[in-house]
Structure formats: C-alpha cells, structure tokens
Specification:
Layout: H1 5-30, H2 46-57, H3 80-92, H4 104-120, E1 128-132, H5 135-154, E2 160-164, H6 170-178, E3 181-185, H7 196-202, E4 207-213, H8 225-235, E5 239-243, H9 253-256, E6 270-276, E7 288-292, H10 295-298, E8 303-305, E9 313-315, H11 324-361, E10 367-368, E11 376-380, H12 386-395, E12 401-403, E13 408-412, H13 422-439, H14 448-455, H15 461-475, H16 481-494, H17 500-514, H18 520-523
C-alpha cells in the first residue's frame, strides 16, 4: 500500500520531517568540529595525536564522569583500575588467541575467566563457555548453538525461538542472521514478566530455545526463570537465561543483602546463560561470557571448516582473530575486584536503586513499571508525554533511555550514580522536569522524543527501519560546515515540493554523495 503514489507522497513527507529532525540531532552531537577525511601525508607526532584525542574526548555535553549517563560507563574511569588496564593493555595489545602456540598465556586467561564465571553461576564440572566481544555476540552464539543442536539431535530444519517481547533485541538480530523464526511473547501488564501460558502455547515441535531475562533491559524485570525452565524440561527444549545486563550483579545479590530468585545453573533445565563482564564486571568494552551447562551444547556454537585449502579452520566465536588485550583486561579486572569487591559494588548500586525507586514512586504523574529488583528503573506517565521528560532531562545534562510499547524512559544505575550527591541531584532535576511537564501536558516536545513518539504509531515497521537506518547513516557521516549549510537549504526546499518523488531524487543524490570518493576537482 505504501508504494501507491498518493500514500508514497504522504509517507515521504513524514519521513522527510523525521530525517530532518534526526540529522539536526546528530549534527548537534558533533557541534562545529571538523572531520578528518584523508590520511596525513606525513605521519603525526605522538603529541599531536594526543592533542586531537583530548579534543575528541570532550565532544558532547553529557558529563558521564559525574554520573549523568544511564548505563554506558559502569565504574570510575579515573580509578586505580584504569591504571591497571593501561599496564595490561601495553603488554597484550598485539596478542591473538587464534594462535595458542604463540600466545598460550592469553588462552589460559580466557579459560580461567570462563571457569570463574561458570562457578559464579553455580555451574558444575561439566559447565563450560567462551569469552565473546559483547552481549550481542553471546546471544547470537547461544541461538546458533540451539539451532544446530536441534538440527543434529532432533532433526529440526525450521527452527523457532520463543522469547518475551522484552528480551534483548539481539535475539531478533540472531534470528535474522541465522534464518530462524522468533515468536515474541507478551508480558503481563502488571508485573511485566513474560506470560507463561502464552509461552507454553507458542511451543511447537520446531522450538529449539526458550528465553528468559534476568533482568531485562527495558524495565529491569526478572522473568520467572524457574517456570520457564520447567517448560524446557517438560518439552525437552534448551532454556537460555539472558543476564547480559545484570550478569555481574546476579551472583552477588544475596551476599549484598538483596536476594533474588535463582536464575542460574542451579535451576534444573537452564542450559545456557549470557553475562557481560564489560558492564557490572567493570572490564573495558567489549567482553561477555556465554556459558553452557554441558559441552554437548557448546560444541554446536563452534564453526569448523574442514576442507579449506588454508587448513582446518576452527573458531569458537564469530570472530577469527580476536584482541588478546580484551581477554587480558577482563581477566585482570576479575582478579582486581575479587568476590568481596563485587559484593561491595553491588551493595552501593542497590542502595542507590532502592533509594531512587522509593523517591521516584512518590512523584505525582509518574508510575514505575513493574517491580524492578536490580539496577534499572523504568517510568511512564498517563498525564503527559513521557518523551518530553527524556528530552528535557537531556537539556539539563542527563542521558536517559527512551522506551516504547509502552512509552517510557529508564535509568540504568551504575557505580557512577552511587557517587556522593549524584542520586539527589538526579531526583531534584527529575522532579523539576516532571512538574514542568505536568503544567503543559499536551505538549509533544521536540528532538528524538518526537521520533520515538511517531515511530510507535507507524503500522508499517519498515518505515521505522528507514528512520533508524538514517540515524546510523548520520553517525557515519563526516559533516563539514559547508555540507551543514547546504543541507539546511536542501531541507527547506524539500519541505515545499508538492511532487515528493523529487524529494526522493534529492535524497538519493545525497546517498550517492556519501559513497563518492571526492577529489579536489569535485569539491570545487
């Protein structure tokens, strides 16, 4: 329908408006800074490079060092840990675990990381895993292992994954990449935990994996993992617990005085767990651990090419070569904190979460979504457009995360928010912004809040894909002042054109330009 000329014109007009908003937001991020687009003829001196680095490090208005960012940075970047990471990196920068004969120490570190983390998640001697570059890769590999296990042991050729709608988007990315159907299951409107009856109804003979979160990214809610695992046992289906966000809080919650239901390998039926060491494990980006209850699952994660002329090529993860320094830094971080250090960090974060959750619940016009037991607090409002809250908090120097279905925003608390005075400063600004929003409840706001609000109303989700793709394109654009000025004129012109196909031509010319390798002649 959207391809019909009349509707296509209407859609083009709306997308043009949205694209303009997104482009303005992206350009605002980089301000007036110019981009380097060509290699220098002569290499720069170290001091010159560091001077550029210092400049780049201060682009942006969110002061994450003072706890103004939701999630993002999970520990003090100016701590003793950073000095340790620098020393470790200097010794391992050029190592590669793809060559265990050359760098056996790096492979030893990875094996030790996996064993330590499996032990934290109540794994027995049969439990195993690998280190990955992040939560998304851990999830992709867990889905890949489940698909291939189902094919090998049960003859499933049309694999399906059953997951809550609140499960991380990486599960949908995994199913896209692996050609698997995913069934997204609604959550209960009061608890925001996955609807177990609906999950049970979605199971078929093609189901290769059931998914639960502990906790989920949008609302910080822990699904009923034990009940999901019972379904897995009943129907002989592997069960994955996504602890990517809360992975290095989960094992320490009880010792910190904030017990949660069991979500690890102590639960019969749980066959795989993903946990990010680069979040609350405080290792640098990017590292995560994918764990399995038994090697019979992990072997289906591996990729082996037996007939390649270059030799037998076997890799445990998606990447071939990997940066050994990431492994070494993760290993060093675990040793630096130790069990007691992680317990103390968990105490600080959960004390802050309990305080903020109680105080935010008292704010008129705001509802907390579900009962978050860990580090995330999500709020919504039936009195005003919640995305105005996100936009205005951004103007005050806070970075919150907008959510959809339902419209909401959340804050992901880290050690940065446990610093003295940060929680109170956040509450003060939060209350001020909420009161301002309540005074003008019909206003829709501006900026990316408008984009999120509009995106939820589009029945054709491919249009949302177009919007998001334009945002990513913008991040990779090397803006120049001349381009900015000319684009402003182009946007203004495009708004006046009744024939929207002309706007399509203009936009297409813009994309062509992105892919053009400009010469000095072309520039003129």
């Amino acid at each position: 329908m959207i391809r019909l000329p009349y509707l296509r014109g209407m859609a083009a007009k709306q997308l043009s408006d949205v694209d303009h908003t997104i482009s303005e937001q992206i350009r605002a991020i980089f301000g007036s800074h110019e981009f380097m687009t060509r290699l220098p003829t002569t290499g720069l001196q170290s001091d010159q490079i560091v001077a550029h680095l210092d400049e780049y490090a201060h682009i942006g208005h969110i002061d994450w060092r003072r706890g103004r960012a939701s999630g993002t940075v999970y520990c003090d970047a100016n701590s003793e840990l950073t000095e340790l990471m620098t020393r470790v990196y200097s010794q391992t920068a050029y190592t590669n675990p793809l060559h265990p004969d050359v760098f056996p120490g790096v492979n030893k570190m990875e094996a030790e990381i996996v064993r330590m983390v499996c032990n934290l998640f109540s794994g027995d001697a049969d439990s195993c895993g690998t280190l990955t570059c992040g939560g998304t890769e851990s999830i992709i590999l867990a889905v890949k292992a489940a698909r291939d296990y189902g094919r090998h042991h049960r003859g499933i050729t049309r694999a399906e994954v059953v997951a809550p709608v609140t499960a991380h988007a990486a599960f949908q990315k995994a199913t896209q990449l692996l050609g698997i159907r995913v069934k997204m299951i609604d959550v209960h409107k009061d608890t925001y935990k996955v609807n177990l009856k609906a999950m049970r109804s979605a199971i078929t003979s093609n189901t290769v994996l059931l998914v639960g979160s502990a906790c989920n990214y949008p609302h910080g809610i822990i699904d009923d993992i034990q009940d999901i695992a019972k379904l897995g046992l009943k129907y002989s289906i592997p069960v994955h617990v996504d602890c990517c966000l809360g992975g290095f809080l989960v094992p320490f919650m009880r010792s910190a005085g904030y017990p949660i239901p069991a979500v690890d390998f102590s639960v019969p039926g749980v066959t795989s767990i993903s946990a990010d060491t680069h979040k609350y494990g405080y290792a640098p980006k990017g590292s995560s651990v994918i764990m399995y209850s038994n090697k019979k699952y992990r072997r289906h994660q591996f990729s082996v090419q037996t007939d390649w002329p270059g030799g037998i090529y076997a890799t445990p993860t998606l990447a071939g070569s990997r940066c050994g320094a990431n492994i070494a830094n993760c290993w060093a971080t675990l040793l630096h904190f130790g069990f007691d250090g992680y317990v103390e960090s968990t105490k600080k974060i959960m004390k802050t979460q309990q305080y903020l959750k109680a105080e935010m619940a008292k704010v008129d016009g705001i509802q907390i979504i579900g009962d978050p037991l860990m580090s995330v607090i999500a709020v919504r409002s039936d009195r005003f457009n919640i995305f105005r809250l996100s936009d205005k908090m951004s103007e005050m120097g806070w970075s919150l995360n907008p959510l959809q279905f339902p419209s909401a925003v959340h804050i992901c608390l880290t050690l940065m928010h446990a610093q003295t005075g940060v929680a109170d400063a956040f509450l003060s600004d939060f209350k001020t912004v909420v009161n301002e929003c309540l005074k003008t409840p019909t206003e829709t706001g501006e900026g990316l809040g408008v984009v999120y609000g509009m995106a939820q109303t589009l029945p054709d989700r491919s249009l949302v894909t177009d919007i998001a793709s334009h945002y990513i394109d913008g991040i990779y654009t090397t803006w120049s002042q001349t381009i900015r000025q000319k684009q402003a004129k182009v946007w203004a012109l495009s708004m006046t054109l009744p024939d929207r196909s002309l706007v399509t031509d203009i936009a297409s010319h813009y994309i062509d330009g992105i892919y053009t390798t400009w010469s000095q002649t072309n520039d003129k």
